[in-house]
Amino acid sequence: MTSAALATELREARERMLILVRDLGGAREFGPRLAIVNPPRWEVGHVGWFQEYWCLRRLDEDRFSAARGESIVPEADRLYNSATVPHATRWTLPLPEFDATLRYCEEVRRRTEDRLAARCSSDDAYFARLAVRHEDMHAEAFHYTRQTLGYEAPALEVPEHPIGDLRAGDAEIAGGPLELGEAPSAVFAFDNEKWAHPVRVRPFRLSRVAVSNAEFAAFVQADGYRRRELWCESGWRWLASADAFSDCAIASGSSQVNTPGARSRALLFCVTRWDHRCCVPDRRCGVDDRAMGWCSRELGRMVARLR
Ligand SMILES: [Fe+2]
Q: What's the pTM?
C-alpha cells in the first residue's frame, strides 16, 4: 500500500470521527461520569494523541523502543495516555478546549500525511494502519456513547437493508479445521491475532444478520431471560451464574434496552456494535458484511473459510 493510500485511510477515519463528535462540544463535551464512557473532550484528544505518539513521535528505528519526541500539546502524555491516566480522572484533567482539541487532531493528521509522503517504511505503514484502526474503534465508542447518553443519531449515511432479502434465518456452518489468526505475511495484525494456528470448530448455526436493538427489546419484553425453553443447557447455566438480566428495562417509546449489570452491558454493547457494523460496511473487512450480516473481521473470515 502506498503512502497516498494510507493517507486516504487516515483521512476517511478522521472524516467519520468528526461526523460523530462535531456536535459533542459545549454542554456535551464532558457529560456524566459513567464507567462505560469517556468525556468526549478527552476522547477526541486521545485519538489525536495516539496517532501522534505512534506515527510522529517515535525517535528510534526500533519499533519497540519507547523513546518519543515532544508532543504538539504540552504534557500530552499526562493527559491522554489511556494506559496511565485513570478513567475516573479524565473529567478533571486540564484539557485543552474542545475546538483546540479538534485542531490538534487535525494538525497531527496533516503532519502524519506529510511524514508518510516523505518516508514510508514498513514500520511507518504499520503504525499508520494501527492509528486508523484505533480511530475506528473510538468511532464505535462514540456511537455507543451517543446511544448511552440518549443523543440523536449521528449524520452518517447508512445504507438501508433491503426488506425480505435472503439474509434472514440462520446459516448452517459445517465446522471443520480452521487456521485461526493472522499469518506472518498479513499486511496488518493486532498482537492478539498472532499467529495463525490450527483449531477445530464444531458445527454451529449463526444468524445471517445481527440482532437489532428492536429485536433485543422484543426478546426482553417477552421475558426471554426467564423462559427456560429458549435456552440450551449450557446457556441456561451461564444465565443462572451471570445473575445480571433481572434488571433489564426498556424506556417507553424506545427500542433501547437499559441493562445495568456488567455482563448485560457487554451484551448491549455487542448489540449496539453489530447494529452499526451491520449497517456500515467496513472498507477494511475481508468479507462482504452486507452479505454476511456480521462484520467481526475475524468471525467473518472464519465463517467464510468454513463454508
Ligand atoms: Fe484508545
A: 0.73
